Amino acid sequence: MGDPGRTMRRVDAVVGLTARLAVRSGRRRRPAPAVDRDLRLAVAEVRAEAPDVVGLTLAGPGPLPAWRPGAHLDLVLPSGLVRQYSLCGDPLRRSEYRIAVRRVGAGSTEVHGLRAGDPVTVRGPRNAFPFVAAERYLFLAGGIGITPLAAMARAATTDWRLVHVGRDRASLPLSSGLDPARVSLRPDDEHGGPASAGELLEGWTPGTAVYCCGPPPMIDVVRRAMPAGHPFHAERFSPPPIRGGRPFVLDVDGVAVPVPADRSALDAVLTVRPEVPYSCRQGFCGTCHVPLLAGETEHDTAGPGRIALCVARAAGESVRIGL
After folding, report:
1. Are 106 and 9 found together in one domain?
2. Residue 312, in any domain of the structure
3. pLDDT at 36
4. For the chain, which terminal residue's Cβ has fewer other Cβ atoms within 10 angstroms, N or C?
5. Among 70, 94, 126, which residue terminates a domain?
6. Are 15 and 117 part of one and the same domain?
């Protein structure tokens, strides 16, 4: 009988070689398909990455679904809360997933309470921040925004540089595992305040793809400074503000609920139905997708006959939904 471990190592080697050849060839790869079923895993390791950041290794009884840099998991917490966390490990290690979580809010506090051996449920991986081939890369990480970028830096097969900014050196986790010659740490307390766009983009040249993950002000500063037409990819910690929205009315099971121009349909629904589930507020996790019974939408990320309450708006005066 053959050695199953040897077989899996061969499979992982083939997957890794294929992924590296795809990046090297310059082709735009489709992200690995999203996994919609629940995965029952267990916490294999808990590690302090920084004073307020915990790293978790999650493992299952067999090989886990494939993922590519930029992907995230939906972590279902014991309380029922669902939170998204970027994968920061090695995509070639199909036996485990790694995440790192900063303690901010109720969901992250629950994560910090997990211990080795605890069972967890995850959904995914999904990828709303795909890593695509480029001549060069500039990775800009704000604090815990290093998580997806660390995986990208490890996977890059062309020249790259990473700038990691934060309050102080203690707030800059995960950088130590990367090539120190390519990583610049920029703590605010050692430079008199947050980095300017000029500091973040120092040395940028045309043909360099910029990947930025961090707080909205950081992303906005870099986006405004980037020359038009050059590749800029960003993932935010919070939903972008609504600009140019029009008011409309939601018919929620026969109840007319007004949606102001500067609020989302989800915000409006929660005023009358606070139990409606939601999570990412950015259109990619699918938690707040509900049936669309009448009307047309725009800026929608849900499929036909559905509406993503957190990002979609009515194309006309109203839409009718079912909860």
Report:
1. yes
2. yes
3. 57
4. N
5. 126
6. yes
Q: How far apart are CA 168 and CA 112, in angstroms?
A: 21
Give alpha helix (H) positions in the chain.
Answer: 4-25, 105-112, 146-155, 197-200, 216-225, 265-272
Provide the domain limits for residue 276: 248-321
Q: Please, are residues 142 and 214 in contact by the beta-carbon 8 Å criterion?
A: yes
> What pLDDT shows up at residue 126?
87
What's the average pLDDT block by block, 10 residues per block, for the chain (323 residues)?
42 40 42 69 95 95 95 88 90 95 84 95 89 95 94 95 93 88 94 92 93 89 90 75 77 89 87 78 75 86 84 88 84
Domain count within the chain: 3
Burial class (CB in 10 A: 0-12, 13-18, 19+), 4: exposed
- Which residue type does 257 have? V
Same domain? For 167 and 264 the reply is no
The candidate with the shortest Cα–Cα distance to 227, out of 244, 205, 253, 242, is 205
Residue 93 resides in a domain: yes
Tell me which residue of 127, 108, 135, 133 sits closest to 53, measured CA to CA: 108
Choose one of 189, 204, 236: the last residue of a domain: 236
Residue 4: predicted pLDDT: 39
- 196 and 171, same domain (yes or no): yes
Question: Please, what's the b/e burial string for 259-291 (b: 16 or more CB within 10 A of its CB; e: otherwise)?
Answer: beeeebbbbbbbeeeeeeebbbbbbbbbbbbbe
